Task: structure prediction
Amino acid sequence: MPSKYAIHTKPVPDRFKALSKSGVIAWEEGCLKCAVCVKKQCVFKVYDKRGLDALQMIDSIDNECMNCYRCVQGCPKELIHKSINPEYKSMGNSYWTPDIIARLWWQAQTGKIPVSGAGYPGPFSGPGFDSIWTDMSEIVRPTRDGIHGREYISTSIDIGKFPRQLMFSDTGELINDLKLLDIPLPIILRLPSYGDISEKTIKGWAITASRLGILLALPVSKIKSDLDKYKASLIPVFSSKEKPVALGDEIRMVEVVWDKKGKANLEAVKELYPNALISIKLPLTRQADKDILKLIDAGYYIFHLEGTDMNMAADDQLVPSKNHLRSIHQSLVREGIRNEITLLASGGFAMAEHVAKGLICGADGVFIDFPILIALECRMCRRCEKGLSCPVDIRHASPKYVALRTINILGAWHNQLLEIMGAMGIKESRRLRGEAGRAMFFEELDPETFRSMNNLEEGLELE
Amino acid sequence: MSNSNTYKLPEIVPTRSRFRNPIGKYRLNRNNECISCGKCVEICPYGVHALKRGRVVTPNHYMCVGEACENPCYKACPTKALSMKRNPTFDTMGDFRWPAELLASTWHMAEFGKVPEKGLEYKLGASGGGFDKLRIVFPKKKSNEEIDESDIDVGIELNRREDNAHRVRIEVPFYGGGMSYGSVSISTMLSRMRAARALGTFCCTGEGGYPDEIKPYDDNVITQVATGLFGVREETIQRVKIVEFKYAQGAKPGLGGHLLGDKVTPGVARMREAVVGYPLFSPFPFHSVYSVEDHKKHVDWIKAINPKALVSVKVSTPTDVDMVAVGSYYAGAHIIHLDGSYGGTGAAPEIAKKNIAMPIEYAVPKVHKFLTDEGVRDKITVIASGGIRCPHDLVKVIAMGADGICTGTADMVALECVRCNKCESGRGCARGIATTDAELMKLIEVDWATQRVINMFLAWRKEIVRILKKLGMKSLKELVGRTDLLVHLDYIKNGKN
Result:
C-alpha cells in the first residue's frame, strides 16, 4: 500500500489584523466605575488583551470578541454596544462574500477544518455549486476505522491520456505509450486575475506546489530563473499571441490557450515539449464539447475549461459553470471517449466543497486561484487593479509566509475533502468524477418537492 | 404518562431575561430636555418606560415595537426629548436561518408564553428557500360552526404498531431532541426534561449517558443508543419508555460525533467511562450494522432487554432516505426520526453542516409518500427535525407529511442562546447553556430555564391551535400530508393573490 498522503500544517499568524464582522462600541461617558465591571468578567478576557494597532488604526478588541454579548447585556449604564463593521461587509462581491473570505483567512492561519457549534447559519441554497448537496451513506462507509484511520481515502488524480486497454508484447512488456501524471490532490494552483502579486509571491506558490506534489500554472512570462528549482511543479501557459519557448525537460506539463486561432501554437509547443503533457485551455461554453471532440481527433487529450471568477459560464453570465460542466461531461460520455481524456475546470472555486462538487459535475481536477491569494490576507478590494497600494502589502510578504499559508489552506481543504468523501462512501477522488448519483441537485429536488404546492385561488389568506 | 382526560397544561409564568439589558430591535434615546412628566410611561402600551423615584427611565427598550406602535411616545413627548431608532446591536445578531427577529421573538415567547404582537417577524427566517418560501393557505370559511379552541387536539400517538410496547401519547406534537450531557450543562438538560414532563412529552438524553439527576424524569426520558455507546447500560434501557437509535445526525451526516477534550470534565468522563481532558469520538457508522437485517438485530436487542420500549430510529437525509425509512419500519421501529441537514450540533465541520444530505423540507414529503405507497404509513410515526425553528415551521412540516417534530436549537434560544456558534470552543458556551465549565454553568438556574422552555412551547402550542382553528380542523392529525394547504412562492400558478 502506498504511503498515506498528509499535508502538514502549522499555524501562521496574520501579518495584519483581520477585518471583523462587527465591532464593540464601549462608551466611557457616564461610566459608574463599578467595582466589578462587566469588562473584567469577560469569559474570553477580551478587554485584558485589548490593544490599539497604531499602524492600522484598529482596536484589537474587535478581533478578540467572541460575540457572547454578555458585556452588552450586563453593563448597568448600557454603555456597551456592538455594531456591524461596514468595511467587512463591503469586502469581495456577491459571489466572493465576506464570510467566504473570512473563513479562508482562518484556514490559512490555522491549517484546520472550520468546526463550529449550532446548525448551518447560511441560506437554504446558493448559486452554482452551492445548489448541490452531497450524499451520505447511512450504514456503510469506506473505512471501518474512521477517515483518519489506517485505511485511507485517496484524493489523487491522474492527468493525461488513458488507453482503452493495456496492451502487452509477447515478452510481457507494456506497449501502450502511457503518459500520465499522478498528483495527490485534485487541485492545481494558478494565478488569480488580479492581486498585488510579486516574484516573491509566485516563488511562495511554487514552493507550495513542489512541497505538496501538485502543480502551479504560470504565464510563461512569469517564469523567472529563481523558479528553476521548481520547474517540475510548474505548468507554463502559452497564450496564442506569444511565440513558445523551451524551458527544459523538467517541465512535465504545459498549457496552451486555444482561441480557435491557437492551432499553430499547439504544434510549435508540441515540438518544443515532446515529453510533456499538453493541456488546452478553452472557455467554458455550451459548445465546448464540439471543440473538444475536434481536438481529440487531432490527438489532444487534456482540456481545461475556464469559467468566470464568479463561477459562471464563459458564454453566459447567468449560467452557473456547473451546468455546462455537467452537459459537456455527459456529452463526452455519450461519445464514448470520456474515460480516455482529462477534463480540468477553473473559475470561482472558492471553498473545499466546490472541489468535490466540481468533480461530481464531471471534472477530473480543478484549478484554484483566488483562495491562494485570500490565504495571504487579500481582502478583494481591487485597489491593486487601480494601481493603489495593497492594504495588506502582499507583494512584500516572504515566500516562506506565502508557502506556509497556502499549504495551510490546502491542508484544510484536503481534510475537508476527506470528510465529505467519507460521508459519501467514496474512497477515491478518481471515482468521484461524474458521480452525480452521490449528489442532490436543487434544480431537481426543489421542483420535485414543491411544484405541486402551487394552488392559490384568489382571495385566500396566506400566512 | 398522563392521558388526555387528566392532562393539564402548565401555567405561563412571565420569566424575564437573566441579563440586565435584554436586546431588542429598537432603542429609545432620552435627552436632557426630559422633564419627567410621565407622559411616555402613561401612553406606552408595551411598558417600555417606567417611573422610578420621580424620574422617568426606560428599563425595557426591548419591548418597544418601533414604527408599528399605535401610540408612539417619541411623537407624544411634549419636550421632544425622546427619539426612537433601530438598535445597532440587534443588527449584528442572527443569521439567514435565525435572523435577529426570530431570535427576539423566541425570547419573547420564552418570557411571556405568547407570540409577539407586532414589530417582530416570528413566522419566517431569511434563508430564501424551504420553510421560508412556503406559506400556509387558509381556505375560505365553509361553515359557520365555530370550533372551540379547547376541543382542538394537538397531541399524537407514538405507537402505531399495535404491538406489546407501551401506548404512548404525547400531548404536544413535539419532543426534545437529543443533546448530550457534556455538550450541554446538567442544568440545561434538567430544565428540558422538566419542561417535557410539564408539557406531557419527552426529551432525549443524546449520547452522553444518563445522569442520576434526570432519574426522577424517567417516564419522560428517551435514551439514546448511538455509535459510541457512551453511557449505555441495560439498566438505562430498562428504565425508559422510548429508546432512540441514532444512526446519523443532520448537522454532520455520515460523520461521527466529536466532543472536544476541553469539554470532557471529570463528571462527563465518569458518565461516559472515559478519560478526563481527552476528546471523545463517536464513530460512524454502527460498526455492527451493514444491512437492514443487522439493524433489526439491534432493534431486537432492545426489545429483549425492555420488551415494552418503543424504538425510535434517528437517521439523516440521504437521497435514499425513503428506503431507509421503510427499512426501519420492517426492522420493527415504532418511530422514524428524520434529522434534516440544517439541524443543530454542539460541534461539526462547517463543510458537513452546509453540504451533506438534504434539507428536511425535501425529505419529509419523500418519506411520507413512499411509506404511504408501501401501505405502512399508518403503522409508523414520522418525526422530523433539523431546522424547525418556530410554530409555523412545525405546521408546514406536518402538512408535508410528518406526524410530529423534535426541537433543539429553539430550546437553546429560549435559554437566550444568541447563535454565536461557539458552543465548542474553550470552556464552552459563554452564556452558560452548552458548557460543562463549573463556573459558567452557574449562569443557568434550573427553575428559570424550565419555565422559559415551558413558556416558549406554550406559545407554540397556542399558535398551532390558532392555525388549526383557522383551518377548520379539530385535530392536528387531520393536517398530516395536506400539501394542498401549502404554497411555495416560487411555484404559484398565475401569480394570483
Summary: The first strand of chain B starts at residue 26 and ends at 30. Chain B touches chain A through 112 residues (CB under 8 Å). Chain B has 15 helices and 19 strands.
